[in-house]
Structures are given as C-alpha cells and as structure tokens.
Design a protein that fits this description.
Arc Repressor Mutant, subunit A, Rossmann fold, 3 domains, alpha/beta, about 250 residues, two-stranded antiparallel sheet, about 15% strand
C-alpha cells in the first residue's frame, strides 16, 4: 500500500471535532474496505472515482457509501466524483493510519508466527514492536525480524516500546489471564484470535476474530444452497410428472 500523504489543513475539522462526530460502528467497519479499494485505484493511476465506481469495487451500494463518506465531511463533486488520493487520506486519517501503531503479538504458535511474518502490517500503519510467548524454549526465535521475549517481560515491553495494540493468538485457557496482563500494562485495544471470549474493563476495546465461526457460517450458506438445489430438482420432477399426466390419453 502506498504511504498516505498529509494533505495539509483539513476542512472537515480538527481531531477533536472529528472524534465528536460519532461515526456509527457499521460505518467504521466499512472504512477499511473503502480504503483498500481507493488504494487499488490509486495504484492504477485513477485520479477520480464516482460513488458508483467505489460501490462496484467494494460491494456496498452507492447510497450507503455516500452516507458513510458524508460522516467524514466528504461529499465528492457532482458530475466528477471523489478525488481518490484525498479521500484515501481522509479515511486513513479517520481510522488512525496516518501514524504508526506499535503492536505486540502474544502466542507464537502457527497463527502467531504467520502474523509476525506478515509484511503487510508495515504498509498499513502497524508495526510489530514485540513478540511474546510463555514457552521459554521459544525465547530468542526470530519472526519478521523481531525476537521472541518471555511473557514475564510483557509490562516492560509495553512501556519501553509504547505498545498500543495487543494481538492474542494464545490457547483458549490462556486468553483471559493474558488479556488481564495486557490491560494492567496499559494496553487499551486487543485483537483476540483465541477461541475464547475475554472480559475487559470499560475503556478497553476488543475485536474478536474466530475463523471457525466464519467457516461455520459459510457451511450454513452452503447447506442452504444444497437444500435449495434439491428442492428445485424435486419441483422440476413434479412438474414433469404433472405434464406427463395432463398429456396422457
């Protein structure tokens, strides 16, 4: 992803003004999708895009997209559309990607290692500042150029490296105790990949990613399609039987 440049004074208001606007959570969830689409357009050299163009790229209907972008103070130009680079900057600024966010990944199993080695974080405003595991045999291992440290050093690492976000890739049983340690260390945002629900105090934000649940949802939709297909085939058979009966002497 190309770096998002600062476009100078922002007519949509100060940071405090933007924070007070109260953008709906559903809109916030769609902003990264718009940002990804705009980045692809920018990389292709596209200077302006209509709401219909963006809607087709993101899978969001154009009316909802225009409403979402209006929360940023961005309404586009009638007959022209949106300036791709500027809208990209607006969204990146709104979701905090015009600054660097240090992240600690806790739990260096297969998933933790894959995340630690993922080069895409750095181009999206996130820097893996620390890797932590409870297994002393893993201490010193290198992933993505960062060495693994022991869980006992978590407080020190969070403080020294100014960690903003914790990523949990631990077993289920360890998720809550590790989340508690993150909160005590001062981390106020947690991305939870562990197969467990964690409790945190007010002021701490948690996002849950459960791959098995997502697969189960897809399995549900696949089953529905199979059932619909079977019912359709049965209907065709019944129609054929009726047609033959009507056509019989």
């Amino acid at each position: 992803m190309k770096p998002v440049s600062n476009h100078g004074p922002d007519p949509s208001g100060s940071t405090e003004d933007r924070a007070g606007r109260g953008i709906p959570e559903a809109t916030v969830a769609r902003l990264p999708i718009y940002l990804r689409a705009l980045t692809l357009l920018a990389e292709r050299g596209v200077a302006t895009a209509s709401s219909e163009d963006l809607a087709a790229t993101t899978g969001v209907n154009s009316a909802k997209l225009r409403k979402d972008l209006s929360y940023l103070g961005s309404y586009g130009t009638r007959g022209v559309g949106y300036d791709v680079e500027y809208l990209r900057y607006q969204i990146a600024r709104e979701i905090g990607l015009t600054q660097d966010w240090p992240v600690v990944i806790i739990g260096l199993g297969n998933l933790g290692q894959a995340l630690a080695n993922y080069a895409g974080f750095g181009t999206r405003g996130f820097r893996v500042a620390a890797l932590v595991d409870n297994d002393r045999a893993r201490v010193g291992e290198m992933y993505g150029g960062v060495g693994v440290r022991h869980l006992d050093e978590l407080d020190e690492l969070v403080r020294e490296r100014d960690v903003s976000i914790g990523v949990l890739t631990t077993p289920a049983a360890a998720a809550q105790p590790v989340a508690d340690r993150l909160v005590r260390a001062g981390v106020t945002s947690i991305l939870n990949f562990a197969p467990a629900v964690i409790s945190v105090p007010a002021g701490v934000d948690v996002r849950k990613v459960d791959l098995s649940i997502e697969l189960q949802i897809l399995a549900y939709h696949e089953l529905r399609k199979q059932v619909a297909g079977s019912m359709g085939a049965a209907t065709l058979d019944l129609d054929d039987m009726v047609a033959r009966a009507v056509g019989s002497p």
